[in-house]
Amino acid sequence: MKKEGENANKPDNTAFTQQRLPAWQPILSAGIVIPGFVVIGLVFIAIGVALFLTSKNIQVLEMDYTGTDTGSPCSKCTYNVSCKCLLTFQLDKLFEGPVFFYYGLSNYYQNYRKYGVSRDDYQLFGYISNLKNPGNDCSPFQYDPTGQPIAPCGAIANSFFNDSFRLFHNVDGVDMEVPLDGKGISWWSDYNVKFRNPELTNGTLKDTFKGTVKPLNWVKPAYELDSNVNNNAFLNQDFLVWMRTAALPNFRKLYRRITEGNYSSGLPAGNYSLEISYNYPVAIFQGQKKVVFSNVSWMGGKNEFLGIAYLVIGSLCIVMSVVMLIVYAKFQVPDEDL
């Protein structure tokens, strides 16, 4: 019985369980390490050059419209609500398409913990019970002063960015409006998985939201964000983009794409004007607002840091290989000691 007890936990007598499988252990000699560092360095440098040059070729146009700068066309709107201003700019050459149109905010901490959790995911997923009884995480934007539930509730929804833009191209003295495409600007997972509109009551969203009120800072209720039912309420593309909070205090979010009509290949050289409906106040927290036009490449948007990082690592590998070669040549360190 004792012998059986001793062998009860003994592994099977196989090459795998008894660790008898063949193995290969490389010998790191100078003839392997130094050329290896050189090859790695050259590969990293080649990738870095490709990334850096590609990023350099990406066109980006940024314009601040906060209105705090002297002479800014939006200075009249800094402390006013529902104000309009006009930004003009000129393109000297074709701004290659597809062109992506972003709005940017600075000194805006969406990563603040209490702000980031101030939402009711069950409400945003379309549960009727949570539509009328928002979760406590939404407090103090859970109910209005009269006790009616807010839909959508929470600080994120309440601070929904509501500036709007219209772009015009001056052609022979006539301002032609540039079509802005707002379809599919949110993440696929947000639109198809994480967010849902509640079931329609009497065939309308208005009846579904009956008994709720709009967020305190909104001009109109969620069911009037768009006339298209597929782009309304919790499935509104602009709302979905805003609800995906940013990790850093200076960020930009996609507003529209320019891909249609005469502008499918980009924005031609010429004079442009951007009409801004200035509704979103940022002066109260020393924030800034900007608009950004950009195109992309195979590596995404403009990002020179990635190319520089590859160049630095590749250069360090080359320098280290040279240092090791000098040490090896001067002191003749035997291979087995490396």
From TrEMBL:
Stored InterPro entries: CDC50/LEM3_fam (IPR005045)
GO cellular component, one term: membrane
Entry's transmembrane regions: 27-53, 308-329
Keywords of this entry: Membrane, Transmembrane, Transmembrane helix
Pfam families: CDC50
Subcellular localization(s) per the UniProt record: Membrane
Family, similarity comment: Belongs to the CDC50/LEM3 family.
Record's protein name: Cell cycle control protein
